[in-house]
Amino acid sequence: MIKFLFTSITALIFFLTLWMIFWWMPIDISQGPVAKTVFIHVPLAWCSMLAIIAVAISSIIYLLRKNLFWDQVAQSTAEIGLIFGIVALVSGIIWAKPIWGVWWTGEAKLTTTLILILIYVAYILFRSLYKNSLQMKKIAAIIAVIGAIDSPIIYFAANLWQEAHPVTVIGPLADEESAFGADYGITLLISVIAFTCLFLLLTNIRYKTIKIENNLKEKLS
Amino acid sequence: MKNLSKMFLIIKLIVLKDLFEELKSKEVFISIISYSILVLVVVATTSSINNSIDFFATIFWISLSFSIILGINKSMAKEFENKGIEFLITSPIDKEFIIIAKFISNLIFITFSSFFILLFNNIILNYDLFEFSFFILVISINIGFSIIGTITYLLFSKVRGKEILSPMLFIPLITPLLMGGSVLTSQIIENDIKNISWFGLIIAYDLLFFLIGLMISNIIFEE
To answer: pTM here?
Structure first.
């Protein structure tokens, strides 16, 4: 019942977000229609950051308590977070071409996001290549924590090494003068809520499939 | 105090063992230097911008980092092949001492090789970069390279496909060091060091991974 309710609410918020992005929001005068990618790019990037934090916390708890639940949470969160991270990077690239004139620059925030994606690819590959054992889970947790060390670098990168990427407009490092207008802010907020709900929903589904997979493997072995 | 001297003695013995072994075979030095020269030659012959300052910084760090992957893999693989690591793990010494000794041995191999790489870079790219500040920079970045390289190799040591997975984690993790190295090298060449904060970041990064290495040594060496 709770799952059905959560899925329905997520779907509703998602439709509301799409309506706000494509019909309610006016087209930006300076950047044109491409500016609307910000409403997809920012929530996706937020969710991938959330995933990193969740993976790191669950991995640390797993290392301390050795409870299988936390390992499975870390694995499912990492997989969904990786997908969100890749889509965030692609949406950023789509925005960058008409605005910056290039698909990619060596800018710190872009580079560190790519680094993070590579670390999580290594994490997922490691889990699939190593035989399923207690040590694999421990080492995977270590890799996840090391990967998470990179996340503060991403967050602070644009502010530390001021380059081409726009500075942070939400969160503790936000510059008050560069804040969005009210309609932009509301759309972005609802979009963030919608994508966060989607992220939680997908992670929950993946967690359950991992649990079933592990149970099956145990019964077959 | 007694424990401290015991720790230094154990680390010294493991490092000396690695050095003597390397002096006999010279496998790590030869592989690092020859691979870096190959990278250097390929880039120098396929590019016509070899008079740019950025080009020197970029190519030096590219050749160094890629050859280091090979060198660390070789040095660590040798320990696994000869079952040296098994003897070290089963011996009554702390796992932290083993990992510190490995950091130091790899650092010595890398630093010794990097001065040869620098020499070849200077010759082939027509530079004269033998400055003390640059040596300090190379050593501080090499500390990070050796720590991260050792950790990543050990993390993936028991997995098939470790040759791919280990660099896949190594390269992303050393990227902040490479960024700092490249920026500071260009500034040292121009004799105008503006971003000293990069140096702080490099040292902090080295320390962070040193502590991570110590914290995870027991899990890494678990049988």
So the answer is: 0.82
